[in-house]
Design a protein that fits this description.
This protein is an alpha+beta fold. The protein contains one helix and two strands; from the N terminus they run βαβ. The termini are far apart.
Length: 42
């Protein structure tokens, strides 16, 4: 993936698919904005 210097907004980042996507995007250099109702999970 080419996510270096990209900004990704991920909703539902505290669990399941959103969490997996956030971790993967971060590994590939993306800057993240994470949103979830569960602050501890996000």
């Amino acid at each position: 993936m080419r996510l270096q210097d990209k900004v990704c907004i991920i909703t539902g980042a505290g669990s399941s698919i959103g969490r997996s996507a956030a971790l993967l995007f971060a590994e590939h250099g993306a800057k993240l904005v994470l949103v979830d109702r569960d602050l501890d999970g996000a």
